[in-house]
Amino acid sequence: MQIILRLADLLDMKKYRISKLLLSKNLENMSGTSAFHWISHSVTNDLKINVTYSTKDGNVNITGKDADYYSFLQSGRIEEKIELEIHFQSD
Question: Which of 13, 54, 80, 83 can bridge 50 by disulfide, Cβ–Cβ 3.0-4.6 Å?
């Protein structure tokens, strides 16, 4: 559960999450990591996640004697492609 929450937090990087006034007043007191996160929020307009799935072709025997033991979810049969589309502020 911690990993899911951390990923959700990292991917929620829109500029509404920070105050530019607070950033400018506290930037020199922040660690490099914190400053990076705050600045990345301040310049990000939007983030979109695009996910596509595809299956690999293969011979599937669902009528033979081993049909009861066959799984369509064999390792490597389904491919998942995840694309992050980040829209930065252009001004």
Answer: 83
* pLDDT single digits (tens) 26-47: 999 999 998 988 888 888 888 8
Cα dihedral across residues 66, 72, 73, 78: positive or negative: positive
Q: What angle do CA 52, 56, 59 make, to 5 degrees?
A: 150
State the pLDDT confidence band at 62, using cuts at 50, 70 and 90. Answer: low
Scanning the structure block, which residue is given the tokens 């980040």?
86
Confidence label for 10 from pLDDT (cuts 50, 70 and 90):
confident
Tokens read off for 18: 């920070």
Cβ-based neighbours of 40, under 8 Å, separated by 6 or more: 13
Distance CA 15, CA 87 (A): 11
Q: How many CA atoms lie within 13 A of 73 on its CB side?
A: 0
Q: Which helix (H) or strand (E) holds 54?
A: strand 44-55
